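Request: Have a read of the protein record below and say how the chain folds.
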Amino acid sequence: MTLAELFSLLRKHLRFVLLLPIVMGVVVAIAAFLMPNEYTASTTMYVLSRNDTTEGTSSGSQYSDLSAAQMMTQDVATIAESDRVKQDVSKQLGISSLSGYDVDVTSATTTRVLTISVTGKDAKRAADIANAYASDLQSVTQSVIGTQSVNVIDQASTPEIPSGPKRPLYIAVGLLAGLFAAIAIVVVQDMMDTRVKSSEDVEQLLNVPVVGHFPKLERM
């Protein structure tokens, strides 16, 4: 099937090709607006190693200390995702577990700054969990890997604007999925239709030229 034939086929079924994406878009929109809002609270911390307190070191030694501190920051990020920290945070807040909340710990390779983002349906609880993580990391990392301190740069505040779900994105995906489904249905139906519809179909089936045909006559 050539591109021109495809466009001709879609034009013949234009109503269906337009209606199905609209229906799917409306269905996805209703489902998206029924989903509860999610809120994300974030806190940032600065990891200070014990070597940072030394003075009078050479530039080469300072570079080595900086690299070691950045590696330690990666270790702190890994510890933040451990079960020990999760259990400590749960006990600190008086809850059984952190199920229902997504905790994301990020650390750039060229900095000693950690960011902990907590996403959940309760805005205040998300902020409380993020701040509890920051508080617990200070004591856990000092005892486990010997950091000097993990200083909080910005405490997590209760978010007022939801971070999700991304409803416009869902609706756009629903519209595109409906469009692709409509095109696929039209093409498959055309391929499964083996009826002879034109003189060109007769030539392809019988491999003989058509010398004439009866025109369509209007009923009296």
Notes: Helices lie at 3-12, 14-34, 59-80, 83-93, 123-144, 167-192, 199-206. The first strand starts at residue 39 and ends at 48. The first helix runs from residue 3 to 12.
